[in-house]
Structure formats: structure tokens, C-alpha cells
Amino acid sequence: MPYISPPRREVYSQLKHQIKQTRLDSVGEMTYLFDLIADIYMSQHTFDYLHLAQVVGAFECAKSEFLRKMVNDYEDLKEVQSGTIWKEWDK
Q1: Average pLDDT, the chain
Q2: What is the mean pLDDT of residues 3-19?
Q3: Integer Cα distance of 91 and 89 in angstroms
Q4: Which of 1, 21, 31, 51 is 20–30 Å from 60 (CA)?
Q5: Range of the domain at 35
Q6: 3, part of any domain
């Protein structure tokens, strides 16, 4: 996760507050925000392979961080509750 310094985070605090105050009712709305941010980033940089790749990389890193911090913990809890299917290889 590319953590940014507290002063740079402060730049986004008003935006974060506004997004938190707006209910996201669908995955389409969430995807719209992701794409909107990517579009704004691209509009502030040259349209070239480097910046396109940086956007793709940011999406991939965000995905990885979400899996690491949110999905894995949830899946581990569910495995404890329900058991695992991964037993055959252990024979």
C-alpha cells in the first residue's frame, strides 16, 4: 500500500468526507468513482504508456490491498466457522 504523508492526506480530507456522506448504492457507482479518479489523473498527465500503466498499477495495488486487509480476514473467519475444503492434498 503506498501510504502518503499526513499533510498530503489532509489535501483529500474534504473529498473523503464528501464521499462518505454520499451513499453508494451500486457497484456501478463505485466503479464510476474509480474510473472518474483515473480519468482525472490522466487529464493531469501526458497520455502515454507510462501513465496508462500507472493507472492500471494503481488499480491492481488497490485490489491487492483490499484482498490483503479485508477479504483474507473474512475468508479466514468463514473457514473457521464452516471448515475447509482444502484437505485432499494433505493425504
Answers
A1: 93
A2: 92
A3: 6
A4: 21
A5: 25-82
A6: no
